[in-house]
Amino acid sequence: MAFGWIDEQAELRRRAGLVRTLRPRAAESPLLDLASNDYLGLARHPEVTEGAARAARTWGGGSTGSRLVTGSTELHAELEGELADFCGFEAALVFSSGYAANLAAVTALAPHGSLIVSDAGNHASLIDGCRLARGTTQVAAHADPDAVRKALGGHEGPAVAVSDTVFSVDGDAAPLTGLAEACREHGAGLVLDDAHGLGVLGDGGRGAPHAAGLAGADDVVVTVTLSKSLGGQGGAVLGPSRAIGHLVNAARTFIFDTGLAPAAAGAALAALRLLRREPARAARACEVARELHTRLTAAGLEAVRPDAAVVSVRAPSPEQAVRWAADCRAAGLSVGCFRPPSVPDGVSRLRLTARADLSGAEIERAVRVIGETRP
Questions:
Q1: 3-state secondary structure the chain
Q2: What is the tens place of the pLDDT at every residue in 272-300?
């Protein structure tokens, strides 16, 4: 029977407690949201939604083609210019998603004969970029510049190290300065995914590379998503102009993909401008994360200290993690649930995302519900 193996895989997932299901949400929900990545609370901000609506009215519902045909509008160019300026880079290139941006950066900057040194805790999009690249990948110990240094030292030829700036599972930060030093000792490039740093870390939310003094360096390329702190959708690659120009000519997820919809570009641009005016939102997101961690650990829960706006709470097993998240939902709280294979260490977690617009009472309520529903 065609695709008969699918039933076998489904049964294996069921036995392991790893079945995933879609849960369409309504436009309005009574749940307290600690599951989305809307770190700055901008997804529904009137300026952001109006930015999306205005762009759709002006440019239409879609971009109508790939960026190299009809999919590039003046709005895309405007967003790229302001993103690059805000984050401190020479140039930027907008993609239809952060996933596509990571695939582009890794595959286009790691040609045949090159070495890619990838952190063991990297996001799936970076891992897939390594798999698709024509270079050879070596996985380095998590957040360990010496491991990167050792890997680079055994290779002659082009090389690049690839890492998240803030890891999406536990919310811990990468040692960016140490990684940059290791790369520079061997003439290697550094590609950083700042999906969870933009809008949260750095001066006014300019990102983790900016905070580490790496913004604008000619050997550093950074990817970002527009779907987290900026409350929209899409992604971008930031870096030296020559690297961005190379992506325009070599990145398959840029050349062959339909351009980002104008509404998404308009929303991201409006959010970026709002963040410029209200930089305190970035610091507030980190403050909320620290408060969540303090209260959770005080309640006897095993929570990982956050370096940005992600707070992780360990669960005993995949099945209990699913039940815990379901019990939280039943009590009015929406939280993320991370299980294998989404977690590199095999440990299941509840994953909470701190939002800058959470009140003290909402933080207290969230901690109470998580504590009362613990397995």
A1: CCCCHHHHHHHHHHHHCCCCCCCCCCCCCCCEEECCCCCCCCCCCHHHHHHHHHHHHHHCCCCCCECCCCCCCHHHHHHHHHHHHHHCCCEEEEECCHHHHHHHHHHHCCCCCCEEEEECCCCHHHHHHHHHCCCEEEEECCCCHHHHHHHHHCCCCCEEEEEECECCCCCCECCHHHHHHHHHHCCCEEEEECCCCCCCCCHHHCCHHHHCCCCCCCCEEEEEECCCCCCCCCEEEEECHHHHHHHHHHCHHHHCCECCCHHHHHHHHHHHHHHHHCCHHHHHHHHHHHHHHHHHHHCCCCEECCCCCEEEEECCCHHHHHHHHHHHHHCCEEEEEECCCCCCCCCCEEEEECCCCCCHHHHHHHHHHHHHCCC
A2: 999 999 999 999 999 999 999 999 999 99
